[in-house]
Design brief:
The chain is an alpha/beta fold. It has 24 helices and 15 strands. The protein starts with 14 loop residues before the first strand and ends with a helix.
């Protein structure tokens, strides 16, 4: 990793342009969340705006204006873009947010049509509103990404915003703007920097699409990976969203030998800088002022009582919500498992949430760990958003819910606001079984008053101080020790399997997802069970969950203190710190 000079950020007339495939108006995961926070904070210090694709199936600008989620939107420009003998009409809409920040959304007929079922060409209401949901057909995402990159330079020329710009590119989908900019006759030289929010890349060889082939030729690309060709064009080091993930990109076998072996020499040459994300929410104590005053005097009784009350509220809200779902009989909102029994407040509630990605999120690890724990010792609530495998890919969750009636409940759809808020406030722990996690959502749990149980990976290592070393291998403990001292008060539980050579083969098996190529489709857990890597994760997760249950039922005072210490952990993460670091990166690249 390369460090950045610690000088004050440079002053000047430059404009920072965030070029991104996701915005706060069309987001899938972490990138969309970051783009809803970082550019607006940057705009407090530098001239700044965002440009992104306009996914019209996701982003209804009229409705957003009616709901006062944006201040206004208006057509700003249109221009022709000729690619491979075809001429496309490209439109630009300017969206002014409630805070006055400007985002420019770019559209053209035939592009940016996600989310859509590739087999029926209709939107699938069971899928999340996901800007990457055009594939299952990989060529469609390649077409969208390359067309967007080709259109950015003429779009900024149409806006007369091509002088003295820093193009802050996000992930492989926008990296080719660096090439498009150099090829454009309508712009002046610009500084290009790249942030990787994940390790993914896109191989351009063998793409079965005439449109993609024309775009590859238009951008003068070869049939290699996008990042292999684009990283050398970047100015300054590559950045990513946590210090730990910056290390892992060039050290962890998952990335160095499975996801990104082809990038290692480039990342080493350029250097990788970790810039920790800030908070995805308002920094506000999640309990009463009186509870905070008492906690500052090491008295956690009020937090304990208020959390207990929230647990009761959760029971009431969830009971009503389950009845509502049963009466509605909506096939798109079918929950799995019997109604939860939350009558005993001494049984902790574990909340497991997030977008399903079989190569990242680790729902299968947590499900298998729960099967290793005594029945009826806790309650487990899953709220996964189906991913590319749809509901069928989550059958292992349905089976767990059926096997553990009254103990496990699965809501594989977007919950109502009231139900989700009650879950955040009333659940005892947030669980993240991530196979990798560039930053992670532990800070969001702390903002809601929940300790965290997580795999020690990526930004989660920095965000969670473990209560004990239960579930942690020696390797995992070494990771923790690199960020936390022995006297740091705990904020949750971490687990990590041993680091052994066999793990490389285990990662390859996991990432391959061969079970999904079978007909009929195979089972994710059955495919991975028996692999040393997966079994090691499961064992560690079961130990950590068991320790979390034991603490909750045996020492409520320590549990309540853990909630308070999690809130104090939030002081380590701020957007102002992230903005300052990115500005130093711009200075280094811009100079």
């Amino acid at each position: 990793m390369n460090g950045l000079p610690q000088s004050e950020p440079g002053k000047g007339q430059r404009t920072i342009v965030f070029v991104t495939f996701e915005t706060e108006f069309a987001k899938s995961g972490g990138l969309g969340a970051v783009m809803g926070m970082l550019p607006q904070r940057m705009a407090q210090h530098e001239a700044c705006f965002t440009i992104a694709p306009h996914f019209s199936r996701i982003t209804n600008l009229g409705r957003l204006a009616e709901q006062n989620k944006i201040r206004s939107f208006s057509n700003r420009a249109s221009f022709p873009l000729s690619v491979g003998g075809e001429t496309y009409s490209v439109a630009l809409v300017e969206v002014v947010g409630r805070d006055g920040f400007r985002t420019y959304l770019l559209s053209a007929e035939g592009f940016f049509t996600a989310p859509v079922d590739p087999y029926t060409n209709l939107r699938d209401p069971t899928r999340p509103m996901d800007p990457y949901a055009n594939p299952i057909l990989p060529a469609r995402l390649t077409e969208d990404a390359l067309f967007f990159c080709a259109a950015v330079p003429p779009a900024l020329a149409a806006l007369k915003r091509v002088d003295d710009v820093v193009l802050h590119l996000q992930d492989w989908e926008t990296a080719c703007v660096a090439r498009a900019w150099r090829l454009s006759p309508d712009v002046r030289p610009a500084t290009c920097v790249l942030t990787l929010h994940n390790p993914y890349d896109r191989y351009l060889g063998g793409v079965d699409s005439d449109v993609a082939a024309a775009l590859i030729s238009h951008l003068r690309l070869n049939e290699e990976n996008v990042l292999t060709q684009m990283i050398p064009l970047m100015d300054g080091p590559i950045s990513t969203v946590s210090e730990t993930f910056a290390r892992e990109l060039v050290r962890d076998p998952l990335h160095t030998q499975v996801f990104a072996p082809h990038l290692q020499h480039l990342l080493t040459d350029k250097g990788v800088v970790g810039v920790d994300n800030g908070l995805f929410g308002e920094l506000a104590f999640p309990f009463s002022p009186a509870a905070r005053d008492q906690a500052e005097q090491s008295d956690f009784t009020a937090i304990q009582q208020e959390k207990w009350d929230r647990r009761q509220t959760l029971a009431e809200v969830l009971d009503a919500y389950q009845r509502e779902l049963a009466q509605a009989a909506d096939p798109n909102r079918e929950a799995w498992g019997d109604d939860l029994d939350l009558s005993d407040p001494w049984k902790p509630v574990f909340l497991v949430m997030g977008r399903d990605d079989p190569r990242q999120k680790g729902f299968d690890v947590i499900v298998e760990a729960i099967r290793h724990l005594p029945r009826d010792s806790a309650r487990y609530i899953f709220t996964p958003m189906p991913g590319a495998e749809g509901l069928m890919g989550l059958e292992f969750l349905r089976r767990l819910a059926l096997d553990r009636p009254g103990e496990v409940k699965v809501f594989p759809f977007r919950l109502s606001f009231d139900a989700f808020k009650a879950l955040q406030n009333g659940s005892s722990y947030m669980v993240m079984g991530s196979l990798y996690e560039p930053f992670g959502a532990a800070t969001e749990a702390y903002l809601a008053g929940m300790p965290v149980v997580a795999r020690a990976t990526g930004g989660l290592v920095q965000q969670v101080v473990p209560y004990s070393n239960v579930g942690l291998s020696r390797f995992g403990q070494d990771l923790v020790d690199s960020f936390h001292s022995l006297d740091d008060p705990p904020t949750g539980f971490l687990f990590r399997e041993p680091s052994v050579p066999e793990n490389v083969q285990g990662w390859r098996k996991i990432v391959d997802c061969a079970y999904w190529n079978q007909e009929p489709k195979g089972d994710r857990i059955a495919d991975r069970r028996g692999t040393a890597l997966f079994d090691g994760m499961v064992s560690g997760a079961a130990e950590a969950l068991g320790a979390a249950i034991q603490l909750y039922v045996s020492d409520q005072a320590r549990y309540a203190e853990m909630i308070y210490r999690g809130f104090l952990m939030l002081e380590r993460f701020s957007w102002e710190r992230a903005v300052s670091t990115y500005r130093r990166l711009y200075d280094q690249a811009y100079g």
